[in-house]
Design brief:
This protein is of the alpha+beta class. The protein contains five helices and 18 strands.
Length: 284
């Protein structure tokens, strides 16, 4: 039977599987069934360990709607912990290739298990062709946009995957389930986008709520935290070291020169299991 590991990073949960061990094709339909919290195992996505010829390890990331993500900060922390805790490496520093680029992971280990992971997430870019976003080439910073008849100001960027940040004065007053999907699928974003509403608390702290592309509202997102921190620094709202507080917990983000992003936070393994023969047969 095909085994998997389930883990979460601040409440954002993923299954980790080995690509060569899967006894069924990982089609969008299979992904949706596995991630279903009533008909499957249940998760916010699937992390697939694959071979890389450019980095120490390779990772493919799938959203619960069956689409593929370029990069996931929470997924990378979970994957890094999985690699060390399950004996794929004894090194506490290694590289991982994702569709959104190669990242470097640094592990903190206690009692033989990973407790914290720092990931160099690469450089953020606000340049519209890279996000991508329609319209003339430009930096998308504090730009007006109309969503469902409501006027918003957005800062859009890529950290290897697309993000749209909206700063608000009252985070609790945001109707995320209405505005989140409307922004995710706004015509300005040809590949859709992740969405964050953010309230700056101080020069080193910001609170956010997240609507994740292909997943909906999530308790935490590493790439979202990075995107918001970069947007805060770009707009002069915070310093370079930012604590990003999400419903699932807090990540520490450092925004360096050229908007190079470094993320630090925990990951927790929940259980190890295997797909039953009956379930595998239904997925074939």
């Amino acid at each position: 039977m095909s085994r998997f590991v389930k883990a979460h990073a601040l409440g954002n949960d993923y299954l980790v599987v080995e690509s060569q061990a899967l006894p069924f094709p990982l089609t969008p339909e299979a992904i949706r069934r596995i991630c279903d919290r009533h008909l499957g195992v249940g998760s916010d996505g699937i992390l697939v360990h694959v071979t890389s010829h450019r980095a120490d390890f390779g990772l493919r990331i799938y959203n619960p709607d069956g689409s593929e993500a370029e990069k996931s900060g929470n997924g990378l922390r979970i994957f890094a912990k999985y690699l060390y805790d399950h004996g794929f490496t004894r090194s506490t520093h290694f590289t991982v290739e994702t569709p959104g680029g190669i990242v470097t992971c640094a592990l903190e280990v206690a009692g033989g298990r990973v407790t914290q992971v720092t990931v160099d997430m690469g450089e953020a870019s606000f340049w519209s062709p890279r996000i991508p976003m329609v319209g003339p080439p430009r930096e998308v910073v504090d730009e007006p946009v109309e969503v469902e008849g409501e006027a918003l100001r957005i800062t859009a960027l890529t950290v290897g995957n697309p993000h749209c940040v909206v700063f608000v004065e009252d985070l609790e007053g945001v109707d995320l389930r209405w505005l989140g999907p409307a922004l995710e699928r706004h015509p300005a974003f040809p590949q859709r986008t992740n969405v964050q509403f953010a309230q700056v608390v101080g020069r080193d702290e910001v609170r956010i709520r997240i609507w994740e592309r292909g997943a909906g509202e999530t308790l935490a997102s590493g790439s979202s935290a990075c995107a918001v921190a970069a947007a805060c620094v770009r707009l002069g709202l915070t310093g370079p070291d930012v604590a990003v507080e999400m419903p699932g917990g807090t990540l520490r983000i450092h925004v360096g020169e050229s908007f190079f992003l470094r993320m630090t936070g925990p990951a927790t393994e929940v259980y190890r299991g295997e797909f039953s023969a009956e379930f595998v047969e239904a997925l074939r």
